[in-house]
Design a protein that fits this description.
By secondary structure, the protein is mainly alpha-helical. It is built from 2 helices and no strands. Keywords: Membrane, Transmembrane, Transmembrane helix.
């Protein structure tokens, strides 16, 4: 039997925080999208438009 005083292989607290921030940002995005729908519709999407040398 192993004694309970042996250190277990636990991840660092910063790894847990960073991994938990991913779902949190997704949830916050959907909440903001439901509360402020115009906020994300007016953001530029980065669509490429053709260049015209005459202008």
């Amino acid at each position: 039997m192993e004694s309970k005083s042996q250190k277990k292989n636990n991840p660092n607290i910063w790894i847990i925080v960073l991994i938990s921030l991913i779902p949190l940002t997704i949830v916050v995005y959907f909440i903001l999208q439901m509360v402020f729908p115009n906020l994300f519709q007016t953001m530029p999407t980065g669509e490429v438009q053709p260049l015209r040398p005459d202008q």
